[in-house]
């Protein structure tokens, strides 16, 4: 069988690294598309550099020429667009940059695919944030979307574009409406990783206090390594479609904190303080997904429980901080 080629944008991020591993394990040639940064930031994919099927190329969501060049040079079978300024709170601080990358960036890629390589199958990283503060949960593919941040507004624009291009031009384009998914590779400023990193540092005597914002927000939290399987599966179906990818369970930030601190043998009252600067101008209070369609059509289910996720992230950070901060210089 002919070897398939996939382009993965956002390769230096959490999902990019897990997706690259999954595709390489399926014998794909993977072109990881990264933007230029002034410091090295490829640590999540450094272990893949010796794989002959893995290659990095420069790309930017704001640079249309890079999209045409990648499509023309590599003629990919599949294109996964998972690049974004993905931090919801930060999107209130740099709204134009966030929106241009997600909304216009997706439009640029779709136009390039339509014009250069319409046979290429396309995956778009949509988000549960699009449901915003709609009080009627659980959310499925048909639920009303009332986005509550510049990030979520841009994601909804891109989500609608994907549907529009699918219907207008008959190209194979899909959106995965992914609920929160975490891992030891999660960015350090997202709440789960912030908690597991701080718990590890407190346990090792390297930190005393963890500052957090709203502990009552609830999220449907799954494991990123499980979620990239759903991305791939969407592009293997007979027909393109959009899918909610979630666990079907929701927990508060407080419950995540309690699970980690209890596992670590730490006292929350002693170490955790509230910082109002971490509150958001418009909070999404409650997210719960209904993944029935993915279960039926993709045969996909999240395999990792909330408790296991919290514990595996804490254990990985304990190991990481021990190696990088505690034993530094030895
Ligand atoms: P992440 O760790 O923040 O990674 C984002 C990636 O996008 C990084 O590689 C980043 O590059 C790249 N990027 C940012 N701006 C770019 C630009 N202008 N041009 C090119 N690349 C750019 O995010 P993630 O957690 O892996 O999530 C992957 C995607 O799924 C994102 O689109 C996110 O919005 C979406 N999503 C995530 C979740 C979740 O819970 N994780 C849920 C729903 C949807 P640098 O390394 O250079 O910053
Ligand atoms: O971890 P978070 O920053 O993730 P958030 O906002 O849910 O967004 C993530 O998931 C989305 C999918 O639903 C993705 F689309 C998006 O790209 C991103 O990956 O915050 C989770 C909750 C929020 O309610 C926030 O207010 O945690 C609360 N929180 C409380 N204290 C905090 C903190 N969040 C952060 N980042 N830092 C805090 O100190």
Q: Structural class per helix/strand content?
A: alpha/beta
Q: Give helix % range.
A: 40-55%
Query: Treating each run of at least 4 consecutive H or I residues as one helix, how many helices?
Result: 11
User: How would a crystallographer describe the biggest sheet?
Assistant: 7 strands, parallel
Distance between the termini: 50 Å
Shape type: globular
Query: What percent strand?
Result: 15-25%
What hetero molecules are in the model? NADP nicotinamide-adenine-dinucleotide phosphate, ligand G4F
Mean pLDDT: 97
User: Uncertain segments of ≥5 residues (pLDDT<50)?
Assistant: none
Q: Tally of extended strands?
A: 13
What is the strand arrangement across the widest sheet?
3-2-1-4-5-6-11
Radius of gyration: 20 Å
Topology as H/E string?
EHEEHEHHEHEEHEEEHEEHHEHH
Features:
seven-stranded parallel sheet; binds NADP nicotinamide-adenine-dinucleotide phosphate; 13 strands; 330 residues; binds ligand G4F; two-stranded parallel ribbon; alpha/beta
Describe the structure.
With 330 residues, the protein is α/β, with parallel strands linked by helices. It has eleven helices and 13 strands. Helix 4 runs parallel beside helix 5 (150-169), helix 6 (191-203) packs parallel to helix 8 and helix 8 packs across helix 11 (306-326). The model has no long low-confidence stretch (mean pLDDT 97). The longest helix has 22 residues, at 95-116. The strands form four sheets. It has a seven-stranded parallel β-sheet with strand order 3-2-1-4-5-6-11, sandwiched between helices. The protein has a two-stranded parallel sheet with strand order 7-10. It is globular. Bound molecules: NADP nicotinamide-adenine-dinucleotide phosphate and ligand G4F. Ligand G4F binds at residues 86, 88-89, 127-129, 179-180, 189-191, 194, 212-214, 217, 219, 253, 278, 280, 283, 287.
């Amino acid at each position: 069988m002919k070897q398939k080629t996939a382009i993965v944008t956002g390769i230096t991020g959490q999902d990019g690294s897990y997706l690259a591993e999954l595709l390489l394990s399926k014998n794909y040639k993977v072109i990881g598309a990264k933007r230029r940064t002034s410091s090295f930031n490829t640590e999540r994919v450094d272990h893949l550099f010796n794989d002959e099927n893995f290659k990095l190329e420069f790309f930017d969501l704001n640079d249309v020429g890079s999209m045409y060049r990648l499509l023309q040079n590599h003629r990919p079978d599949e294109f996964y667009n998972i690049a974004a300024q993905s931090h919801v709170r930060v999107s209130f601080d740099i709204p134009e940059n966030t929106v241009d990358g997600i909304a216009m960036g997706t439009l640029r890629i779709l136009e390039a695919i339509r014009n250069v390589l319409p046979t290429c199958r396309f995956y778009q990283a949509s988000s549960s944030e699009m449901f915003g503060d709609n009080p009627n949960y659980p959310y499925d593919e048909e639920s009303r979307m009332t986005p509550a941040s510049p990030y979520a507004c841009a994601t909804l624009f891109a989500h609608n574009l994907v549907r529009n291009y699918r219907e207008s031009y008959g190209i194979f384009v899909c959106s995965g409406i992914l609920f929160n998914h975490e891992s030891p590779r999660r960015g350090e400023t997202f709440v789960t990783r912030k908690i597991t990193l701080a718990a590890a540092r407190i346990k090792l005597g390297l930190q005393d206090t963890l500052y957090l914002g709203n502990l009552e927000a609830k999220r449907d939290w799954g494991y990123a390594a499980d979620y990239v399987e759903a991305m791939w599966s969407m592009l293997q179906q007979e027909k393109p479609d959009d899918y909610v990818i979630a666990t079907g369970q929701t927990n508060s930030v407080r419950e995540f904190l309690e699970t980690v601190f209890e596992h670590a043998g730490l006292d929350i009252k002693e170490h955790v303080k509230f910082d109002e600067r971490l509150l958001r101008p418009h909070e999404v209070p409650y997210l719960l997904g209904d993944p029935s369609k993915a279960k039926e059509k993709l045969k996909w289910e999240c395999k990792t429980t909330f408790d296991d996720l919290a514990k595996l992230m804490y254990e990985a950070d304990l190991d990481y901080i021990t190696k990088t901060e505690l034993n530094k210089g030895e």
